[in-house]
Specification:
The structure is a homodimer.
Chain A (H helix, E strand, L loop, with lengths): L7 E4 L14 E5 L4 H10 L4 E5 L2 H10 L3 E3 L1 E2 L2 E2 L14 H4 L3 E5 L1 H12 L4 E5 L4 H10 L4 E5 L8 H14 L8 H13 L3 H7 L3 H8 L3 H7 L9 E4 L2 E4 L1
Parallel strand pairs in A: 1-9, 2-8, 2-9, 3-7, 4-7
Antiparallel strand pairs in A: 5-6, 8-10, 10-11
Helix pairs in contact in A: 5-6, 6-7
Chain lengths: ~240, ~240
């Protein structure tokens, strides 16, 4: 490592973001189950753009103002007043191409707004679905990076940590990393990578239990598959577009 | 797992403690490098009790009021106005037996006071030096447990996470654990346990770098050695005593 490399740090919960210097950094918002996986999928399948909102009420409100698909869930079901859910399987090309998706994603949107407030240079979203596109973008820039896990109501989760570890494993030689959370994330990923679904299941990961309880094992498997929707969602002026 | 088992959760940073219900729980304060290792060592070697304080100023103040050993460091050296440092090697039986130790430990004391404010039932301190005594105590109680990592200025660190993982690995069958941080900690521990010193070194753990930079590799090795001072420090009325 040389001092001239940009820094990479990992923030495992939004409640820890204040510890990191996001100003002028590239911040990757990570919400593997399922917001950022679904965002990558919708944009990969031709969605015009995605507007992330942090509440069902805002989603309903936007749905009245613009011609769009409103989506969001509560307790594993489509939220009252919205038309679609959070599953990536709902956003096939046939359905979403050319449309605007307004997606309710509480944890991810909160972190995104925090990164914005802290003066991030670029904000993108990452998931296994767009792992390579995320890494390629980080390597193409010469800026500090914060891998920001959206977590679940500020509690650290396994799948977002795993994704941070996967990114670190791929890009680490190009960054200066003096961050124990990054080392922990990479160790976890290396232990899990041969079968992340089985790892989540074996570890009783909280979101594995929650989603499989709703019969959504298929969603979990999809969201752990690398490069299945390999584009980069880029946030600017309130919307996520494909670059 | 049955519902009748008490819960065990892991809090990887004091900045996340508000997410957990500490009321009536046993909270284990973990500050492996080096506060809780040194506390176990001093009490194992016959110190009358240990008063943890969160600043050098308070340590100096107490030193004027009672007959005690005042200890604390800044940047790897004994802090100005104090007599001794934070190394467990300073607290041999010859030196510390029968004495009161006032120890400056910023991160650990902060977390301890937070646990107290949140209504913890019992507060104990844990480190590899007293791993078995810590686990035995948790197993002897039928209460919820929070493994509280002191971290470093709220940033998650590898060694405190490793210790949480070691405890979980030993006691998990007796608790209900639905906590991704606990699973991450145990995975890290299982990966590191055969040679934790080499693991810390290989991972460029932030405290490995900091302490080895001060020539304190010997302290790190000591603090990663299980059961080298196998007693249980118990906090009550502002002091830590051996039970």
């Amino acid at each position: 490592m040389t001092d001239s490399k940009p820094f990479l740090t990992t923030c495992l919960s939004p409640a820890l973001l204040h510890l990191y210097d996001a100003s002028n950094a590239v911040v990757v918002i990570i919400d593997v189950l399922r917001a950022t996986s679904t965002i990558a999928t919708a944009l990969n399948n031709g969605a015009k753009y995605v507007i992330p909102v942090d509440s069902v009420a805002k989603c309903i409100e936007l749905g009245k103002q613009i011609n769009c698909i409103t989506a969001g869930e509560r307790d594993g079901k489509i939220a009252e007043g919205l038309a679609y859910g959070n599953s990536p399987f709902e956003y096939s090309r046939d359905f979403i191409e050319g449309k605007i998706l307004v997606l309710t994603t509480t944890n991810g949107t909160k972190l995104l707004h925090m990164a914005l407030d802290k003066g991030a240079r670029y904000i993108v979203t990452g998931s296994f679905a767009n792992l390579s596109a995320t890494c390629d973008f980080l390597l193409s820039q010469n800026h500090n990076v914060i891998l920001g896990c959206a977590a679940w109501k500020d509690k650290i989760n396994i799948e977002d940590t795993l994704f941070a570890g996967a990114v670190i494993n791929r890009v680490k030689n190009h960054f200066s990393i003096n961050c124990d959370s990054s080392m922990i994330a990479e160790t976890l990923y290396l232990e899990a990578k041969d079968d992340m679904y089985e790892f989540m299941k074996k570890q009783n990961a909280s979101h594995y239990l929650r989603l499989s309880g709703y019969g959504l094992e298929k969603d979990i498997r999809y969201c752990l598959t690398p490069d299945i929707a390999n584009i980069l969602p880029f946030y600017e002026n309130g919307i996520l577009t494909r670059i």
